[in-house]
Design a protein that fits this description.
Blueprint: H1 9-30, H2 43-62, H3 72-89, E1 102-105, E2 108-110, H4 112-130, H5 143-157, H6 162-178, H7 183-190, H8 193-202, H9 205-215, H10 226-237, H11 263-296, H12 300-324, H13 342-360, H14 372-383
Antiparallel strand pairs: 1-2
Helix pairs in contact: 1-2, 1-11, 2-13, 3-4, 3-5, 4-5, 4-6, 4-12, 4-13, 5-6, 6-12, 10-11, 11-12, 12-13
């Protein structure tokens, strides 16, 4: 690390801005509702608790050198813990048709898949860095990464949580693409995609219904198409400046899950085009700063870890916003730093803390005095 490097101030400011948006949005979205609370607290108070705990974890992660995360013993303990928790959640009580939460205490639940996402990113970064930053072909050495990765994805999928599985898989594909995986492997992966789509999407009734509702929500305006239509009404009625704080009408039992899945729609109705543009801009800034940190990292491990964290956060926000404006079928993906939910808030802030620590371990100039790992990465990029 170069002495005198500071934490990325843009990333800190953007994170705090999105958390402020979340405070206002959750306050408005839950003012007339009573979803589950944290230990008897109101949802708004619980959201504050989640944020404060997350900020403490972020502050701690910011001051722990990310080099420690590539220690094999720590890495495999985290991977094993993620698998055990994901397996245990399958025996937990079913909530809203899925088993995704483990009760840690009365009124306190956590979602193992939220932590498992980042463990898998960590494993992938470690694996690719040990391959010298390149992965042209699959070989025997890939088993050490492919087996635990496949198990984690499978365990998340059977909860069932198709959305999180898809976002995480897309992130891993992005990392493999950067590592230089040959195109033929992507083509081979497409071969089973058609039967997989048929059996796991089309043959599953609620997923097929969601897909058809996305295609034509007005065909069933009071059923499957209802959430999409109500979200579009909320977004469209916001206009340029919105109706003002707590003035949303769609949150009044018209829009389902306004504090989690459709919180962007509530924000759009109350703050309009200007407010939604601010939120989108914040996520674009996170994407920009994350890529910059990845490109300037002093090790390949830091590069792939920063890239993986950035892609995951960006894709998750992209999916949530796209669902709210009917660009994607409805999925239960929260909006990072904004939606109500302790597991997502705490793990997201923890991941941003790691990203901020990597920002301190950057080369001032990647073309002068760069370490051999950086030069190797640049040669790979040039060859592509």
């Amino acid at each position: 690390m170069h002495k005198g490097n500071l934490f990325d101030r843009w990333l800190i400011f953007t994170t705090l801005t999105l958390m402020a948006v979340g405070v206002l949005a959750v306050y408005s979205a839950t003012a007339v509702r009573t979803p589950e609370t944290l230990g008897g607290l109101t949802p708004y108070a619980a959201h504050w608790v989640h944020g404060i705990v997350g900020l403490v974890i972020m502050a701690i992660a910011m001051h722990i050198d990310y080099y420690h995360y590539r220690r094999p013993l720590l890495l495999w303990i985290l991977v094993g813990g993620a698998m055990i928790s994901l397996a245990a959640v399958l025996f937990a009580p079913e909530i809203n048709g899925a088993r995704r939460w483990i009760a840690a205490a009365p009124g306190l639940r956590f979602q193992p898949s939220e932590g498992a996402k980042y463990v898998l990113i960590l494993l992938t970064a470690w694996f690719l860095s040990h391959r010298g930053g390149t992965l042209r072909d699959f070989d025997r050495d890939c088993v050490i990464w492919a087996v635990p990765s496949g198990l984690i994805l499978a365990l998340i999928f059977v909860e069932p949580d198709f959305g999180t599985t898809a976002v995480l898989a897309a992130t891993l594909i992005g990392l493999l693409f950067v590592a230089g995986l040959r195109w033929r492997y992507y083509l081979w992966a497409l071969l089973p995609s058609v039967p997989a789509f048929y059996f796991f999407v089309w043959r599953v009734e609620y997923r097929r219904v969601r897909l058809l509702a996305f295609w034509d929500p007005e065909a069933d305006p009071l059923g499957a198409g209802y959430p999409i239509l109500q979200s579009l009404i909320a977004v469209g009625s916001g206009g340029w400046l919105g109706k003002g704080l707590a003035q949303s009408t769609q949150k009044l039992f018209f829009l389902p899950e306004p504090h989690t899945d459709f919180i962007f729609a509530v924000w759009a109705e109350e703050w309009g085009f200007i407010g939604t543009s601010t939120v989108v801009l914040c996520f674009l800034v996170i994407f920009w700063r994350g890529l910059r940190i990845a490109l300037h990292s002093d090790t390949l491990f830091g590069t792939y870890l920063a890239l993986g964290l950035t892609l995951l956060l960006f894709l998750q926000s992209f999916v949530n916003i796209s669902v709210a404006v009917s660009l994607l079928p409805a999925k239960g993906i929260p909006l990072p730093l904004v939606s109500y939910g302790g597991s997502c808030m705490v793990t997201t802030l923890g991941a941003l803390g790691v990203l901020l620590n990597i920002s301190r371990h950057t080369q001032v100039c990647v073309t002068s005095g760069a370490q051999p790992e950086i030069l190797a990465r640049m040669e790979v990029t040039a060859a592509r």
